[in-house]
Amino acid sequence: MTAAGIAVATDDNGAAALAVVLRSAEEGDGTVAWADVSTDIEREHWGAMLEQGVLVPAERESDADRFVLANPTAVAETLEAREFVPPEPKGWSRADFVAAVGALALLASYWVGATRGAIGATLDLALGPVATLLPFPGLILLCAATTTAAALIVRHRIDSPDVDGLRHRSRELQARLAAARARGDETTATRLTTQRQDLLERQAFLLANQLRVLVWTMLMTVPVIIYLSWVVTSPARATAPLVTVAPILGDIVWTARVVGPVQAWLAWYALSSLASSLVARGVSRAIPDRFAASA
Questions:
Q1: Residue-averaged pLDDT of the chain
Q2: Which domain holds residue 156?
Q3: How far is CA 99 from CA 4, 6, 36, 154, in A?
């Protein structure tokens, strides 16, 4: 393993990826392929290992698409020598608390007819022209895709590198712990278990961060949901037909209840949001990397 290869583990994300590859190699026949670790590491880290000589092609002809660690001992020593100081919780800022109050107020306004009508009429000034051009299912899909994209951006901006490092460090320790137990190294396993328990105590930090993401996301999604609700219930909005004919399903009444209090339009919004999120995440993970498949 070259000095450049050791640089792969200088940050927590790279070290976590290196630990996953080491564990996969030790638990198998010493070789590793992209398919073995693709669900646990990013393409950029796999590519960096190939580029910097951490992984080299396996010598056996039957393992054409598999690789081996050039120096497993150096990889293990590099991971053992790393130090990590878990970040201290920074707490919520004043803006976060204001956003939380605003999100709760918007959520409560959904059940207040006058407030819901005011919010719907205000958003209609911007979305009304679009609503007249698109069929109602298309309007819902557009709103869901837009709010999903905005939510991903917010999550990316709020999810600080410290939190990301804490998450990847936990994955790294888990991988190293599994590898130590696999080779019967109880001393290392005990030390790693203690370190991992220290990290688990910081899970409240991750929870607080996720709540911040939820609060800021609600500021964008709740008004859109209120607007769509206003569109299907307000007599002033005759552009949204209450019935849509769909293949196989037949007539769909958008105000009909599907499950409990959930109406058809809200169920369609939820499905559209889920599909938009899956597509966005799939696209972000499918960005081609010239090192993903070969050296």
A1: 77
A2: 94-161+203-239
A3: 45, 43, 42, 13
